[in-house]
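Page 47, continued from p. 46.
Same chain as before, 348 aa.
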Amino acid sequence: MARRRGSSGVTIQAVAERAGTSTMTVSNFLNGTGKMGDATRERVREAVDALGYKPNAAARALASSGAARIGLVYANPQNAFLSAMLVGTLHAAAARGAQLMVQHGGDLEYEALAEALRALVRSGANALLLPPPYSELVAGQPILAELGVPIAAVAAGRPIPGIFTVRVDDRAAAQAMTDLLIRQGHRRIGFIGGPEGHGSTAGRLAGYRDSLLAHQLPEAPELIEAGDFLFESGLDAAKRLLDLAEPPSAIFAANDDMAAAVISVAHRRGLAIPNALAVAGFDDTPIAVKTWPALTTVRQPIAEMAERATSALIERIANPESDAGAADMCVGFKLVERASTDIGRLRR
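Result:
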């Protein structure tokens, strides 16, 4: 496993382990930043001397510039979620004079992501911002301590130790949306979930189930389909649900891309929306108002969430001992009713 090395070949992680402290503390000692007790400072000094650690000159120069450099990894550059996230990140970066560094995270596998994060840090990133599902991939992994920089995640789906998370309550939001469909008279409601391992997947499915239970409706296993948050997976799931002997009268997809795919399949089959089939999504990304009819969805403020996460990272860089970016932040969601579930809105 590659590690950040000084010109002597000794890793900063080795210095931190010998001193019994974090790599961030070692970095602060080397760069003369942050606050630490005299005893900690002496332990780090002794470890540096004992191991003969010599910081890489180029990395030292970058660190001494004092600028906040936020490294952002991405998977699909055409994803609407990423576009909204970039808006918030750039807004915070511009307001605070920070730099944004962008890197493809590779395949959705731990080793590929770990190497992408190492590359960002080697290039000078002193904080990292992760969209889903990358935060879940690194949760509990040694890469968090190895990198030694503050990390934040947007829409992680759950709190993650060692990472500042900004998210909505996926479970409560999904329950609220399913409640809405039930109030509109639907009793057989299909659900298309996200990929296994994605933090929000479990929460949104749990919320759907909570609503059925609260309204004393039986859970029908055939009405629950797995997706991967991509449009194509929504097409396949919608076809299977609508091919059932008793198809659902409403389908709730765990993101807008898959919900838009459901609308597409319904149109191809001549099913009037929402009269013959109601459709709901999650996120309120731009595609929600580009479909016809416009999509009822859960709005999570992605740009605002990214802006808050970025601001917390910048604050941590400026003040390493601050509490910013050291917790889990849950922001509000909103149900946005549009014509894909509301016959009255369609007629207006």
